[in-house]
Design a protein that fits this description.
Length: 245
Amino acid sequence: MPEGPSIVILKEEATRFLGRTIERVQGNTTIEKERLLLQKVESVRSWGKHFLLELPDFSLRVHFMLFGSYRINESKSWAVPRLSLGFDSGDELNLYACSVRFIEEPLDLVYDWWADVMSEHWDPALARERLLTVPDMLVCDALLDQDLFAGVGNIIKNEVLFRIRVHPLSTVGALPARQLHELVAQARQYSFDFLEWKKQFVLKKHWLAHTKRTCPRCDIPFSKAHLGRTHRRSFYCENCQVRYG
DNA sequence: GAAAATGTTATCAT
DNA sequence: TATGATAACATTTT
């Protein structure tokens, strides 16, 4: 469910609730969900992997973690929603196995929109600048760093590094300018490719590296290892992905 | 059926 | 104090 492009799809589907009032609230969340009653949805936004409903006095933040899911105008008969929001005409948004929180401050004070690879405010020059301040960071960690590339997850990480032919254990500071530029450019470009493929239900068949056993360029076995500070799965080709640093 | 996985945060140990 | 390991959450697929 959870990488940035998937949240954008949810945001687009949830714009149907824009300007409407929350009339029913259910769910096993421990937050004071009754606060949501009679609140009007003033905007439907996202930042990275965060799905946001802006309400008059506060905002609702939903994070789907690894296992979260949602349904609009239908429900999972076998599962209790973490939070269910009911609108007029019986419309509803059901959120499962996710983390939900209230944000009291205005969203523009909380979020750096230029860090979100899916945002119209994404700022590649700033991203490059910020990368230069962490030269010792591994590129596999940099891509997963939500302060640098909000919305990028493990699939996008693996596909971007394969696409730009950079080894995941490369160090940010050792990247030639051209590769640094490509890293930033493809973090966004692949995310938008992901978005289109996901909408067409053909995402998986476009994976070139993630979960793959063989390099489609070299036809030699991929390496698979749990790398970086978060020990997330990396699929990469020792032959055609260059290790810098 | 065990294991692992599109993720993050809190807590504990060193 | 900083870093790193571990746990916790909880669902679906392999």
